[in-house]
Specification:
Strand order of the largest sheet: 1-4-5-6-7
Number of domains: 2
Largest sheet: 5 strands, mixed
Structural class: alpha/beta
Low-confidence stretches: 1-13, 272-276
Strand content: 5-15%
Shape: globular
């Protein structure tokens, strides 16, 4: 049920395009026993440390779709206007890719393919204007597409440019534009796909990615009752197989009784190694701390007599013996929801509102999550609805992230931030205000 509700939320943010199925059964998509694959997927879904629970069902994941989509739009606009520049560092592309790389373990290292390698002079989208335009136009065309055929046609046009050093790593950007059509792509995902299907897909070529995509869609279609129309789920399964967390069932030619017994034993005892266990524990602590800070802001706002809004996907989280949304608004006033960014505004962590519906303060808690996405949601609030609807915009983060927050606020992509007075609020100051019940925020 939780995965279903998340896809409903996702459909409110993006246009969901249903891909055309290429196979009607799992048997035609996989050279291994269907019952074994279903058992594997069921175990994987239950794994507290696997990507399904730590990333795919992570509440912050959906918040990032709209902000990354907005960032990709900015990259295309900069390229088309000739203001993108000739370097990755400091560009709008760096801002977006950094936001992708922050999406927990499955996207770790997503920025590497875009980094400039001076000896090889790749990827060749910084010095070659034609290639740069082709890249930007592919992104913009895909952003505006409403059908699978249009998306694939845009990718093939870009493929024809044979841009040196920039292969299907760009598919990680396309995933955030069309999560039902374009699966993420990295070494572990490819390794997992090959292990599960017996394929020999290689990194670096768009043809290989598109071939893998066909297989992923086929498997996903056959296992829709266990997975999701959002291809992030099946990509997470491939990632966990490719990174060694789970073992794929024996392929048809190797499926002897002995091989099946070994696989069953490995599946029965599949547990995270020490490093992954620590990552799982850290993720749980991060989520708890994020909720705790939201609770502080909720209590302060209520104590000061304001109406309080908690992000729509967070309000049912456990907090202080109750629910995070206890005592808070269940809907936002029309002044806030009248603009096109209403869905994104509803995902802002905490809002304090005056009785007339004006937002006195908006807070985005960035414990370890993408500062970039938080800033974009703030801009959505400030630049939509009635003029001056939001007075105070705060990025709330640990004291140790101060320089990271300020560096993001200085990015050229956020030139409007200084005009809108988005401010950094460290945990230490908030903690002192919470204890003393005197927040000292502008009123």
């Amino acid at each position: 049920m939780r995965a279903t509700s998340e896809i409903i939320q996702l459909s409110a943010i993006l246009t969901v395009v249903t891909p055309t199925p290429t196979f009607s059964s799992l048997e035609s998509a996989l050279p291994c026993d269907e019952a074994a694959v279903r058992e594997l997927v069921s175990r994987w879904r239950e794994d507290a440390g696997g990507t399904y629970r730590t990333w795919f069902l992570w509440p912050e994941r959906l918040k990032n779709f709209r902000s990354l989509r907005r960032g990709i739009e900015q990259v295309s606009a900069d390229i088309e206007a000739g203001t993108f520049g000739t370097a990755y560092r400091g560009s709008s592309l760096e801002t977006v890719v950094h936001g992708v790389a922050e999406q927990r373990q499955i996207f770790k290292g997503a920025d590497h393919p875009f980094l400039w390698k001076p000896k090889l002079r790749i990827p060749d989208i910084y010095e070659n204007r034609d290639n740069q335009l082709a890249f930007g136009r592919m992104l913009e065309t895909c952003r505006c597409c409403t059908s699978e055929d249009q998306v694939l046609a845009a990718v093939r046009v870009f493929m024809d440019h044979n841009v040196k050093g920039l292969g299907p790593s760009a598919a990680n950007l396309l995933y955030f534009l069309h999560p039902t059509l374009m699966p993420p792509f990295n070494t572990a995902i490819v390794k997992g796909y090959n292990a599960l299907t017996g394929s020999r897909v290689k990194l670096g070529k768009w043809e290989e990615y598109l071939s893998m995509r066909d297989g992923v869609l086929a498997i996903n279609n056959a296992l829709r009752d266990l997975l999701s129309n959002d291809l992030g789920a099946i990509a997470g399964l491939m990632f966990d197989i490719g990174s060694g967390r789970f073992t794929a069932p024996p392929l048809a030619g190797d499926d002897t009784d002995a091989a099946r017994a070994v696989w069953q034993a490995e599946l029965a005892h599949a547990r995270a190694n020490g490093q992954v266990d620590k990552a799982q524990a850290a993720a749980e602590r991060q989520d708890t701390t994020h909720t705790e800070v939201q609770g502080w802001l909720r209590d302060l706002g209520l104590a000061l007599g304001f109406d309080v809004w908690i992000a729509s996907n967070d309000r049912n989280r456990a907090c202080g013996g109750g629910r995070l949304g206890d005592g808070c608004l269940t809907s936002l006033p029309s002044q806030v929801t009248s603009g096109p960014a209403a869905d994104a505004i509803g995902l802002i962590d905490v809002l304090w509102l005056e009785p007339k519906g004006h937002v006195l303060a908006a807070f985005e808690v960035e414990h370890t999550t993408s500062i970039y996405s938080g800033i974009v949601r703030m801009l959505d609030l400030a630049l939509s609805g009635e003029p001056g609807i939001a007075r105070g915009l705060y990025l709330v983060a640990p004291d140790s992230r101060e320089e990271e927050v300020r560096a993001q606020l200085r990015r050229p992509a956020f030139s409007r931030v200084s005009d809108l007075h988005v401010r950094y609020l460290p945990y230490g100051e908030l903690d002192r205000s919470y204890v003393g019940s005197d927040p000292g925020f502008p009123r």
